[in-house]
Design a protein that fits this description.
By secondary structure, this protein is α+β, with helices and mostly antiparallel strands. The chain contains 7 helices and 14 strands.
Protein backbone atom coordinates (compact mmCIF):
# COMPACT_ATOMS: atom_id res chain seq x y z
CA UNK A 1 0.00 0.00 0.00
CA UNK A 2 1.55 3.34 -1.07
CA UNK A 3 2.03 6.13 1.45
CA UNK A 4 -0.25 9.14 1.31
CA UNK A 5 1.04 12.31 -0.31
CA UNK A 6 1.64 15.10 2.20
CA UNK A 7 -0.27 18.26 1.27
CA UNK A 8 0.75 20.51 4.19
CA UNK A 9 3.16 19.83 7.05
CA UNK A 10 2.26 22.61 9.50
CA UNK A 11 4.86 24.85 11.15
CA UNK A 12 4.34 26.23 14.67
CA UNK A 13 4.84 29.84 15.73
CA UNK A 14 7.79 30.28 18.17
CA UNK A 15 5.49 32.47 20.29
CA UNK A 16 3.68 29.29 21.40
CA UNK A 17 6.43 28.85 24.00
CA UNK A 18 5.92 32.16 25.87
CA UNK A 19 2.13 31.71 25.50
CA UNK A 20 2.16 28.39 27.37
CA UNK A 21 4.60 29.77 29.95
CA UNK A 22 2.51 32.89 30.70
CA UNK A 23 -0.95 31.34 30.47
CA UNK A 24 -0.13 28.47 32.85
CA UNK A 25 1.67 30.78 35.28
CA UNK A 26 -1.28 33.20 35.37
CA UNK A 27 -3.75 30.38 36.05
CA UNK A 28 -1.58 29.00 38.89
CA UNK A 29 -1.23 32.47 40.45
CA UNK A 30 -5.01 32.88 40.67
CA UNK A 31 -5.01 30.76 43.84
CA UNK A 32 -2.81 30.97 46.94
CA UNK A 33 -2.02 27.26 46.68
CA UNK A 34 -0.96 27.67 43.07
CA UNK A 35 1.62 30.45 43.67
CA UNK A 36 4.41 28.07 44.88
CA UNK A 37 3.58 25.78 41.96
CA UNK A 38 3.87 28.76 39.60
CA UNK A 39 7.42 29.42 40.85
CA UNK A 40 8.34 25.78 40.23
CA UNK A 41 6.67 25.91 36.83
CA UNK A 42 8.66 29.01 35.79
CA UNK A 43 11.85 27.07 36.58
CA UNK A 44 11.00 23.86 34.70
CA UNK A 45 8.39 25.27 32.30
CA UNK A 46 10.84 26.07 29.51
CA UNK A 47 12.07 22.49 29.46
CA UNK A 48 8.55 21.01 29.53
CA UNK A 49 7.28 23.34 26.78
CA UNK A 50 10.35 22.65 24.63
CA UNK A 51 9.68 18.89 24.93
CA UNK A 52 6.01 19.48 24.07
CA UNK A 53 6.85 21.54 20.97
CA UNK A 54 9.48 19.02 19.84
CA UNK A 55 6.81 16.30 19.81
CA UNK A 56 4.05 18.51 18.38
CA UNK A 57 3.04 17.99 14.76
CA UNK A 58 0.08 18.45 12.45
CA UNK A 59 0.13 17.12 8.88
CA UNK A 60 -2.54 17.26 6.19
CA UNK A 61 -2.38 14.25 3.88
CA UNK A 62 -4.56 13.39 0.90
CA UNK A 63 -7.07 11.45 3.00
CA UNK A 64 -6.13 12.00 6.65
CA UNK A 65 -5.13 14.61 9.22
CA UNK A 66 -2.27 13.45 11.46
CA UNK A 67 -1.75 15.06 14.86
CA UNK A 68 1.16 14.28 17.19
CA UNK A 69 1.30 15.48 20.81
CA UNK A 70 2.71 14.58 24.20
CA UNK A 71 5.66 15.15 26.52
CA UNK A 72 6.43 11.87 28.28
CA UNK A 73 3.69 9.81 26.65
CA UNK A 74 3.52 10.60 22.95
CA UNK A 75 0.21 10.19 21.14
CA UNK A 76 -0.44 10.11 17.40
CA UNK A 77 -3.96 10.58 16.04
CA UNK A 78 -4.85 9.85 12.42
CA UNK A 79 -8.25 11.33 11.58
CA UNK A 80 -9.90 10.46 8.23
CA UNK A 81 -10.88 13.67 6.46
CA UNK A 82 -14.34 12.33 5.64
CA UNK A 83 -15.03 12.02 9.40
CA UNK A 84 -14.19 15.68 10.09
CA UNK A 85 -17.29 17.88 10.41
CA UNK A 86 -15.50 21.12 11.29
CA UNK A 87 -12.25 22.72 12.49
CA UNK A 88 -13.57 25.36 14.85
CA UNK A 89 -11.20 28.29 15.41
CA UNK A 90 -10.72 29.84 18.85
CA UNK A 91 -8.56 32.66 20.24
CA UNK A 92 -8.49 33.65 23.91
CA UNK A 93 -7.20 36.98 25.24
CA UNK A 94 -3.70 35.65 26.01
CA UNK A 95 -3.52 33.97 22.60
CA UNK A 96 -4.66 37.22 20.99
CA UNK A 97 -1.84 39.07 22.79
CA UNK A 98 0.73 36.72 21.24
CA UNK A 99 -0.98 36.69 17.84
CA UNK A 100 -1.80 32.97 18.04
CA UNK A 101 -4.83 30.97 16.98
CA UNK A 102 -6.05 27.49 17.75
CA UNK A 103 -8.60 25.11 16.38
CA UNK A 104 -10.44 22.08 17.65
CA UNK A 105 -11.19 19.12 15.40
CA UNK A 106 -14.82 18.01 15.45
CA UNK A 107 -15.58 14.59 14.00
CA UNK A 108 -18.82 12.79 13.14
CA UNK A 109 -20.25 11.05 16.21
CA UNK A 110 -17.69 12.59 18.58
CA UNK A 111 -20.16 14.99 20.20
CA UNK A 112 -23.02 12.52 20.25
CA UNK A 113 -22.92 11.95 23.98
CA UNK A 114 -21.48 12.95 27.35
CA UNK A 115 -17.74 12.74 27.73
CA UNK A 116 -16.81 13.27 24.06
CA UNK A 117 -13.47 15.01 23.64
CA UNK A 118 -12.02 17.12 20.85
CA UNK A 119 -8.44 17.42 19.56
CA UNK A 120 -7.07 20.94 20.15
CA UNK A 121 -4.06 22.46 18.37
CA UNK A 122 -2.61 25.90 19.16
CA UNK A 123 -0.03 27.97 17.32
CA UNK A 124 -0.04 26.74 13.71
CA UNK A 125 1.41 29.37 11.38
CA UNK A 126 -1.37 30.66 9.09
CA UNK A 127 -3.99 28.62 10.97
CA UNK A 128 -6.92 30.12 9.04
CA UNK A 129 -5.49 29.03 5.68
CA UNK A 130 -4.56 25.60 7.10
CA UNK A 131 -8.17 25.12 8.27
CA UNK A 132 -9.45 26.11 4.83
CA UNK A 133 -7.10 23.62 3.13
CA UNK A 134 -8.27 20.77 5.39
CA UNK A 135 -11.96 21.47 4.75
CA UNK A 136 -11.39 21.96 0.99
CA UNK A 137 -9.55 18.63 0.74
CA UNK A 138 -12.35 16.96 2.73
CA UNK A 139 -14.94 18.36 0.30
CA UNK A 140 -12.90 17.23 -2.72
CA UNK A 141 -12.80 13.69 -1.35
CA UNK A 142 -16.55 13.75 -0.70
CA UNK A 143 -17.30 14.98 -4.22
CA UNK A 144 -14.95 12.40 -5.73
CA UNK A 145 -16.57 9.51 -3.84
CA UNK A 146 -20.01 10.60 -5.09
CA UNK A 147 -18.98 11.05 -8.72
CA UNK A 148 -16.72 7.99 -9.04
CA UNK A 149 -18.29 4.98 -7.30
CA UNK A 150 -16.19 1.83 -6.95
CA UNK A 151 -16.91 -0.22 -10.04
CA UNK A 152 -15.00 -3.27 -8.75
CA UNK A 153 -17.19 -3.91 -5.71
CA UNK A 154 -19.62 -6.74 -6.46
CA UNK A 155 -23.27 -6.25 -5.66
CA UNK A 156 -24.40 -8.42 -2.73
CA UNK A 157 -26.83 -11.19 -3.44
CA UNK A 158 -30.45 -11.00 -2.26
CA UNK A 159 -29.71 -13.45 0.55
CA UNK A 160 -26.69 -11.44 1.68
CA UNK A 161 -28.75 -8.24 1.55
CA UNK A 162 -31.42 -9.75 3.78
CA UNK A 163 -28.82 -10.89 6.34
CA UNK A 164 -27.13 -7.48 6.36
CA UNK A 165 -30.49 -5.76 6.75
CA UNK A 166 -31.36 -7.95 9.74
CA UNK A 167 -27.98 -7.26 11.35
CA UNK A 168 -28.39 -3.52 10.78
CA UNK A 169 -31.91 -3.47 12.27
CA UNK A 170 -30.71 -5.46 15.29
CA UNK A 171 -27.81 -3.06 15.92
CA UNK A 172 -30.15 -0.08 15.64
CA UNK A 173 -32.50 -1.60 18.23
CA UNK A 174 -29.62 -2.39 20.62
CA UNK A 175 -28.17 1.12 20.27
CA UNK A 176 -31.57 2.75 20.75
CA UNK A 177 -32.28 0.69 23.86
CA UNK A 178 -28.83 1.41 25.32
CA UNK A 179 -29.17 5.15 24.78
CA UNK A 180 -32.61 5.19 26.38
CA UNK A 181 -31.37 3.24 29.42
CA UNK A 182 -28.35 5.51 29.86
CA UNK A 183 -30.51 8.62 29.54
CA UNK A 184 -33.10 7.20 31.97
CA UNK A 185 -30.55 6.62 34.74
CA UNK A 186 -28.60 9.85 34.11
CA UNK A 187 -28.91 12.38 36.91
CA UNK A 188 -29.97 15.77 35.54
CA UNK A 189 -28.67 19.18 36.49
CA UNK A 190 -30.48 22.51 36.43
CA UNK A 191 -29.38 24.71 33.55
CA UNK A 192 -30.16 28.42 33.07
CA UNK A 193 -29.19 30.32 29.93
CA UNK A 194 -29.47 34.10 30.35
CA UNK A 195 -28.60 37.08 28.12
CA UNK A 196 -28.79 40.80 28.96
CA UNK A 197 -32.20 40.87 27.22
CA UNK A 198 -33.94 37.77 28.59
CA UNK A 199 -33.76 34.28 30.04
CA UNK A 200 -33.69 31.79 27.15
CA UNK A 201 -33.83 28.57 29.15
CA UNK A 202 -34.37 27.23 32.67
CA UNK A 203 -34.68 23.45 32.47
CA UNK A 204 -33.07 20.19 33.56
CA UNK A 205 -30.38 18.70 31.31
CA UNK A 206 -28.18 15.60 31.59
CA UNK A 207 -25.20 17.08 29.75
CA UNK A 208 -23.99 20.44 28.45
CA UNK A 209 -21.21 21.02 25.92
CA UNK A 210 -20.18 24.64 26.55
CA UNK A 211 -17.78 26.73 24.38
CA UNK A 212 -15.32 28.12 26.92
CA UNK A 213 -12.75 30.67 25.74
CA UNK A 214 -10.02 27.99 25.49
CA UNK A 215 -12.11 25.10 24.11
CA UNK A 216 -15.23 23.01 24.67
CA UNK A 217 -16.12 22.14 28.27
CA UNK A 218 -18.34 19.20 29.23
CA UNK A 219 -20.64 19.72 32.22
CA UNK A 220 -22.86 17.08 33.84
CA UNK A 221 -24.01 15.80 37.24
CA UNK A 222 -21.06 15.69 39.63
CA UNK A 223 -18.89 18.21 37.76
CA UNK A 224 -16.72 20.14 40.22
CA UNK A 225 -17.62 23.78 40.95
CA UNK A 226 -16.10 26.10 38.36
CA UNK A 227 -16.34 29.62 36.96
CA UNK A 228 -15.15 30.08 33.37
CA UNK A 229 -15.19 32.64 30.60
CA UNK A 230 -17.22 31.84 27.49
CA UNK A 231 -15.87 32.07 23.96
CA UNK A 232 -17.45 31.94 20.53
CA UNK A 233 -19.03 28.61 19.70
CA UNK A 234 -21.91 26.18 19.77
CA UNK A 235 -23.67 25.34 23.04
CA UNK A 236 -25.32 21.89 23.03
CA UNK A 237 -27.74 20.76 25.75
CA UNK A 238 -28.89 17.14 26.12
CA UNK A 239 -32.22 16.59 27.88
CA UNK A 240 -33.34 13.66 30.11
CA UNK A 241 -35.63 10.84 29.05
CA UNK A 242 -38.77 12.38 30.52
CA UNK A 243 -38.17 15.40 28.28
CA UNK A 244 -37.73 13.31 25.15
CA UNK A 245 -33.95 12.66 25.39
CA UNK A 246 -33.40 15.24 22.66
CA UNK A 247 -30.75 17.91 22.21
CA UNK A 248 -30.89 21.64 21.61
CA UNK A 249 -28.19 23.93 20.24
CA UNK A 250 -27.47 27.63 20.74
CA UNK A 251 -25.06 30.10 19.14
CA UNK A 252 -23.07 31.69 22.01
CA UNK A 253 -20.58 34.57 21.90
CA UNK A 254 -18.89 35.75 25.10
CA UNK A 255 -19.92 35.82 28.73
CA UNK A 256 -19.34 33.57 31.75
CA UNK A 257 -20.55 30.27 33.20
CA UNK A 258 -20.83 29.09 36.78
CA UNK A 259 -21.25 25.45 37.83
CA UNK A 260 -22.00 24.82 41.50
CA UNK A 261 -24.08 22.24 43.41
CA UNK A 262 -25.28 20.66 40.14
CA UNK A 263 -26.63 23.98 38.87
CA UNK A 264 -25.22 25.45 35.67
CA UNK A 265 -25.75 29.17 35.05
CA UNK A 266 -24.66 30.51 31.65
CA UNK A 267 -24.54 34.31 31.41
CA UNK A 268 -23.99 34.95 27.70
CA UNK A 269 -23.35 38.28 26.01
CA UNK A 270 -25.08 36.88 22.92
CA UNK A 271 -27.07 33.66 22.56
CA UNK A 272 -29.44 32.53 19.82
CA UNK A 273 -31.30 29.22 19.49
CA UNK A 274 -30.19 27.38 16.35
CA UNK A 275 -33.73 27.20 15.01
CA UNK A 276 -34.09 30.98 15.34
CA UNK A 277 -31.07 31.73 13.12
CA UNK A 278 -32.25 32.83 9.66
CA UNK A 279 -29.84 31.40 7.09
CA UNK A 280 -30.29 34.22 4.54
CA UNK A 281 -29.50 36.86 7.17
CA UNK A 282 -26.47 34.89 8.37
CA UNK A 283 -25.25 34.53 4.77
CA UNK A 284 -25.60 38.29 4.26
CA UNK A 285 -23.75 38.96 7.51
CA UNK A 286 -20.91 36.65 6.41
CA UNK A 287 -20.68 38.22 2.95
CA UNK A 288 -20.52 41.72 4.46
CA UNK A 289 -17.77 40.70 6.91
CA UNK A 290 -15.74 38.97 4.20
CA UNK A 291 -16.01 41.97 1.90
CA UNK A 292 -14.84 44.42 4.56
CA UNK A 293 -11.12 45.34 4.44
CA UNK A 294 -9.07 47.07 7.13
CA UNK A 295 -6.79 49.77 5.59
CA UNK A 296 -3.07 49.39 6.20
CA UNK A 297 -2.89 52.83 7.83
CA UNK A 298 -5.96 52.38 10.04
CA UNK A 299 -5.45 53.33 13.71
CA UNK A 300 -5.22 50.31 16.04
CA UNK A 301 -5.17 48.08 12.95
CA UNK A 302 -4.32 44.87 14.83
CA UNK A 303 -7.34 45.28 17.10
CA UNK A 304 -9.54 46.04 14.09
CA UNK A 305 -8.27 42.96 12.23
CA UNK A 306 -8.88 40.76 15.29
CA UNK A 307 -12.41 42.13 15.66
CA UNK A 308 -13.17 41.60 11.97
CA UNK A 309 -11.83 38.04 12.07
CA UNK A 310 -14.08 37.23 15.03
CA UNK A 311 -17.09 38.72 13.21
CA UNK A 312 -16.33 36.50 10.21
CA UNK A 313 -16.01 33.42 12.43
CA UNK A 314 -19.29 34.26 14.19
CA UNK A 315 -21.14 34.73 10.89
CA UNK A 316 -19.71 31.48 9.47
CA UNK A 317 -20.82 29.60 12.60
CA UNK A 318 -24.33 31.03 12.29
CA UNK A 319 -24.54 29.88 8.65
CA UNK A 320 -23.34 26.39 9.60
CA UNK A 321 -25.80 26.09 12.50
CA UNK A 322 -28.69 27.40 10.38
CA UNK A 323 -27.99 24.76 7.73
CA UNK A 324 -27.62 21.98 10.30
CA UNK A 325 -30.82 22.87 12.17
CA UNK A 326 -32.69 22.98 8.86
CA UNK A 327 -31.29 19.58 7.81
CA UNK A 328 -32.15 17.76 11.06
CA UNK A 329 -35.37 19.68 11.67
CA UNK A 330 -34.43 21.18 15.03
Amino acid sequence: MSEERILWDADFDPKVKPYYLWSTSIILCLTIVGIPLAIVYVIIGNWLIAKHLANLGCTLNERTLEIKKGIMNKTESTIPLEKITDLQMFQGPIMRHFGLRGFKVETAGQSSGPGGSLVNIIGIVDAVEFRKSVLDQRDRLAQGSKSTPDQTTPEPSNQQSEVLTEIRDLLVKIESKTLKEESAVANPITCRLVTPERELLNEEVVYASVPAWDGLMGVQHGTAPIVARLGLGKLRLDFPADAGSGSREYFVDGGFLKMSHNELIILAERAIAAEEIIESEAQAELAEAQARVIPEDAPNRMDAVTKLTREREAAALKVSMAKTSKAVGI
